[in-house]
Amino acid sequence: MAINTETLPPSLEERYGAAAGSSNLRLDENRRGAVNLLIAAGVAARGEQKGSRVLGGALQRLLTEWEQVAKPQRMPAMSFKAWIDALPLIKVGEREGRDGEIVPIMGRDKEGARRKRDEQQKQSELMYGKELMLLAQKLPSRFLVREILFAVAVQWGCEEPEEVVAAAIAHWLASKCQNCQGTGSVQAGDKIRTCDKCHGSTQARVPGGDAGHRMVDYMDLCRVTWLGAFKQSYREIHKTA
Q: What is the reported pLDDT for 190?
């Protein structure tokens, strides 16, 4: 039986995201409100693994901010068949006619078109990635996230830590493959084939090589660590209230 997610109550993470932007911070003994969630979030950043918990909380706020802003529109990829059909006919060879005359053979430069299409798609993905990175840099929580991750990157001895951190944040916020829009498959004429960029994984390639992979994994770990502490703190606060 399918579950209608629209009727489900908001998760604790979603409620915290709303609380972070709430203007009503009154403490009501008879009702749990935004201030209760913020108190639990503050408690969650204390204790063991304080550094990773602080980063985890900042990442959760950054994710909430990201989900609330409008994303840049990406130009849909044209299928190769449609790309070929849009090309003008050109002379690709010659043949001898019935009366011995030379008749031009008309066709389309498929290989040249494929190279040009792939190059344009590559440029489109590059520009879209830059737009996402610029958008991520406008989010309020980016300062704390970037500061902590930069210190981590320097401690790890990463080359060009600023670039590694910026690319990791952008990927962490928008990790879906842009070629297939995170579906794992693309339309090829009348057929559907596996995406040749993500190979069906639905996820984009992590930028920055090993350092990028390590940074993204660390961000995931910190957020999970903070979420666990946050949920526990929220339960304990209301258990003793």
A: 66
The model carries a pTM of 0.69
Which runs of E-coded beta strand occur in 102-236? 102-107, 185-188, 191-194
HSE value, Cβ hemisphere, 13 Å, CA-based, for 200: 3
Q: Which residues of 16-31 are buried (b: 16+ CB within 10 A; e: fewer)?
A: bbebbeeeeeeeeeee
Bridge partners (DSSP) listed for residue 176: 203
What is the C-alpha to C-alpha distance for residues 38 and 36, in angstroms, rounded to an integer? 5
Judge contact between 177 and 198, C-beta under 8 A: yes
DSSP letter at 29 equals: T
pLDDT above 70: residue 12: yes
Whole-number Å distance between alpha carbons of 101 and 210:
62
User: CA 17 to CA 22: how far, in whole Å?
Assistant: 9
Kindly report, residue by residue over 145-182, the tens digit of the pLDDT: 999 999 999 999 999 999 999 989 988 998 888 778 78
